[in-house]
């Protein structure tokens, strides 16, 4: 099984598709919780209650682990493809002219997404979730978390960079959604077009929700 996953093109695609689905779920949960920001500091306090639910406590690290695996495995595959120099590759070799722009540039899109994830981790996660995990006097309360988000997203350059990131992520998700299901065997002529449409709708709703949060603070709303 190990050799199949590492050496087989199908095995590699399987890991990417399953870990990619973890990414979708992680972003959906993250978006749902962030939408509480639009309700002000009092509404955002509900996030702490939700995060303390047993199912969420279990889900978050699992989904985050799948997210990390997706990124690291994609980088490893890209390195293997680079070393192969024309041999059989994970991405099925030379891409057809009919392949979508997102499919042809998944690595570039992935690197951009990764860079902004690192920015997000240093500006938010390290100051909020990490402090809560470590405990002690450095824990950040809900009102302080809200103030941190509001302060950063009111900075035009910072907020605009985030919005650009969301729409780069949109390209990545629109291809990755239906591609993941295709790898898992749902690739017939009936379902593939449907999954492509569902992927576009899903990614668009997710991206618009994230974007609305930035615009909310950028235009001076919120406490």
Automatic annotation (TrEMBL):
GO cellular component, one term: membrane
Key words of the record: Membrane, Transmembrane, Transmembrane helix
SUPFAM superfamilies linked: Fumarate reductase respiratory complex transmembrane subunits
Cross-referenced CDD domains: SQR_TypeB_2_TM
Keyword Membrane attributed: yes
Record flagged with keyword Membrane: yes
The organism's place on the tree of life at top rank: Bacteria
Transmembrane segments: 55-79, 106-126, 157-178, 199-219
NCBIfam families listed in its UniProt record: sdhC_b558_fam
Name the record gives this protein: Succinate dehydrogenase / fumarate reductase cytochrome b subunit
Organism of derivation: Microbacter margulisiae
